[in-house]
Amino acid sequence: EDQVTQSPEALRLQEGESSSLNCSYTVSGLRGLFWYRQDPGKGPEFLFTLYSAGEEKEKERLKATLTKKESFLHITAPKPEDSATYLCAVHLSGGYQKVTFGTGTKLQVIP
Amino acid sequence: NAGVTQTPKFQVLKTGQSMTLQCAQDMNHEYMSWYRQDPGMGLRLIHYSVGAGITDQGEVPNGYNVSRSTTEDFPLRLLSAAPSQTSVYFCASSPLAGWTGELFFGEGSRLTVL
Q: Comparing C-alpha atoms, which of B75, B108, B113, B112 is closest to residue B9?
């Protein structure tokens, strides 16, 4: 069965304290791995797509990396506005836009 | 620039009542979908559509109906609401050709079934 597991469930950081979020996956036929950000009371907002092991994408203080079994979202010198829930999702072969989401990591950045 | 618009934002139903959650997008996207989000469960796909007149089931379709008569609209119908359908519902859309992984989500509809 295809599975996407995110850890930790919640993370509290001081402003400027860098850390990483993990997304491990057990799927067959991975076509891509996505990261989304979700603010309270809002819909998820797309951040990155990674297609193959070794690939990296960056956006401001965020950097996503991909291996054959997991992805990391590195947050460098976070600010309070980075507080959100970060969702990992995998795109599987065999269907239109067939995407399986993880349960997310809730990040809180304290000033 | 509206994007994906969902209505209503909040709704309270009694068990057995019916209702329709509305979703409209103005980006001419072929693909539209409905997800539900529950604590500890992540987003789960209910139904999806790849164009007008074409719909299919997702992971958790039971208790929900959909139709797609236009490119813009994709309503989700609950025919007889149950407490297990208490959730936050998200509509999402995307183009089909050249898809890069971005789903465009609405702001959600929070449904409570008593």
A: B108
